[in-house]
Write a structure and sequence with these properties.
The structure holds 2 protein chains of 2 kinds. By secondary structure, chain A is α+β, with helices and mostly antiparallel strands. Chain A has 2 domains: 20-76; 86-177, 2-Layer Sandwich (Gyrase A, domain 2). Chain A is 52% helix and 21% strand. Chain A has 4 helices and 4 strands; from the N terminus they run αααββαββ. Chain A has helices at 22-75, 79-92, 95-105, 134-146, and strands at 110-119, 123-131, 150-159, 164-172. A 4-stranded antiparallel beta sheet of chain A has the order 1-2-4-3. Chain A is elongated, with a radius of gyration of 24 Å. By secondary structure, chain B is an alpha/beta fold. Chain B has a domain at 163-272: Nucleotidyltransferase, domain 5. Helices cover 28% and strands 34% of the residues of chain B. Chain B has 7 helices and 13 strands. In chain B, helix 1 (47-61) packs across helix 3 (128-140) and helix 5 packs across helix 6 (234-243). Chain B is globular. Chain B starts with a strand and ends with a helix. Classes of the chains: A alpha+beta, B alpha/beta. The A-B interface holds A 1-3, 6-14, 16, 108-109, 111, 132, 163 and B 15, 69, 72, 77, 83, 85, 88, 92-93, 96-97, 100, 110, 112, 114-115, 124, 126, 128, 131-132, 135, 145-150, 153-154, 157, 268, 271-272, 274.
């Protein structure tokens, strides 16, 4: 179909192959070896970088947890006050609004995989995302950080097997200044 | 050659200086249950009967060993209209976006993308095992399968040439068990949806409601766009739509030469003549 066009749609399980000469095969093998060695080198470098990131992230998370514990200690008050805050939060920030506001921040190459909403005195948002490329995920984090709707951003663990998957925890501050 | 639940159809397409033309067309019926289009389940439960129908088509066309395009029916693929970010390979991006909508592991999907205007692509994913079953039947019938495409993508290829620059229009692309709705605006494909068919007396009214809903989603009001119909049962649907006061027309004009079926009954014919 449409043989004259620049792109021929083909869902074959065995797409048409071109005949390779011996020279082309040798060049291909050499290129594959070069790519493989580059990948091994890149993997080793990125592994070291990831471990450094993990250590820094763990330190940040520990600091954040300590701050939250101190804040909770300072805020501790009558149980009714906590319940009132939960009711107020769930009314002011219903799940569809959170999903819509998060969706507006997602770059095209990032998709939302799961979302946990914890209505406390403040709404804590815990989400998992998948991204085609690491820089798309970075772009998403940058948008979250720049957003006036979310605060206390804590990026969680990342997995880079195939597409990148990661978790992010933050609080929702809604339309309040 | 094209396969669907009720029939196997083949067309002999020739290319010349005057453009492509259909030199012959043959059709063989399939008994109910021999072929069952589905995105995830086995599609060819009675391979021998499908092979025999295809072999009959091949003999009628008088072809042997000539490169053939195999057209898969409506209902086997997940199809989506996607805006691919600049600099990204369309197929790779389509695989990423379609993965979450597949009823089978994404690694089993064969993905391709039909380029439209700008960075817009009509992207499809078909399960490898589903394609293999169709390919095996075609090869078993003596065809040399050179390319595999989807009926709906072939239809869009033909339809977009009929919608001029800046033009608008709607299309109903019918298969035996599933159908697609396409809306063109500003000369380009603006919306594409697929549905399982719901055969019965009310199908015309149901499809009319789907046309209205799809047009509204694409930003067009009822009656603002002309609707073209192609595929299995196009003639009957055109009559039902006329009775319902929804103006529609066959997607392809009647062929100049005598064919065993009306042109509009073949959703993919437009692509063969593009």
């Amino acid at each position: 179909m449409a043989r004259g066009g620049p792109h021929v749609i083909d869902f074959s399980t065995r797409p048409r192959r071109r005949l390779w000469t011996a020279d082309a095969a040798l060049v291909g093998a050499a290129a594959a070896a070069l790519v493989l060695s580059g990948l091994l080198c890149w993997n080793a470098t990125s592994d070291l970088g990831r471990r450094r990131d993990d250590v820094a992230r763990a330190a940040r998370e520990a600091d954040a947890a300590a701050e939250r514990a101190e804040a909770a200690e300072r805020r501790r008050g009558p149980l009714s006050a906590v319940l009132v805050a939960q009711v107020r939060e769930s009314a002011e920030a219903p799940p569809p609004r959170i999903v819509a506001e998060l969706s507006a921040l997602l770059p095209p190459e990032v998709r939302l995989q799961s979302l946990d909403l914890d209505y406390r005195e403040r709404l804590v948002v815990d989400l998992h995302v998948a991204a085609r490329r690491a820089d798309a995920y970075d772009q998403f984090l940058a948008r979250l950080a720049a957003s006036d709707r979310f605060a206390d951003l804590v990026p969680g663990p990342e997995s880079r097997q195939g597409e990148l998957t990661a978790s992010v925890r933050m609080s929702y501050r809604g339309s309040a200044p | 050659m094209a396969l669907d639940a009720a029939s196997a159809t083949g067309a002999l397409v020739s290319w010349s200086a005057g453009g492509p033309s259909v030199g012959g067309l043959a059709r063989a019926s399939l008994v109910a249950g021999a072929l069952a289009p589905s995105p995830a389940e086995p599609n060819v439960p009675r391979k021998d009967e499908v092979e025999e129908a295809l072999a009959s088509v091949r003999r009628s066309l008088g072809v042997n060993g000539r490169a053939a395009t195999l057209i898969l029916p409506e209902g086997v693929a997940r199809i989506a209209l996607l805006e691919v970010p600049a600099g990204l390979p369309a197929r790779e991006y389509a695989r990423f976006r379609l993965a979450q909508a597949l009823p089978y592991p994404a690694a089993e999907a064969i993905v391709d993308a039909l380029p439209l205007a700008g960075r817009r692509f009509l992207c499809g994913a078909v399960r490898r095992g589903v394609v293999e079953a169709y390919e095996d039947a075609a090869r078993g019938a003596g065809f040399h399968v050179d390319q595999v495409t989807l009926a709906s993508m072939a239809a869009v290829t033909g339809l977009r040439t009929r919608v001029g620059p800046g033009g608008a229009g709607g299309a109903v692309i019918l298969g035996d068990v599933a159908m697609s709705l396409a809306v063109f605006r500003g000369g380009g494909l603006a919306l594409f949806r697929s549905r399982r068919r719901d055969p019965g007396d009310d199908e015309g009214a149901w499809i009319r409601r789907e046309i209205v809903r799809t047009s509204a989603l694409a930003g067009a009001g009822e009656g603002e766009i002309r609707v073209a119909v192609a595929g299995s049962g196009a003639g009957a649907l055109l009559r039902q739509l006329a009775q319902l006061g929804c103006p529609a027309e066959p997607a392809w004009p009647r062929a100049g030469r005598s064919l065993p079926v009306e042109s509009a009954e073949l959703s993919w014919l437009g692509a063969a003549l593009t």
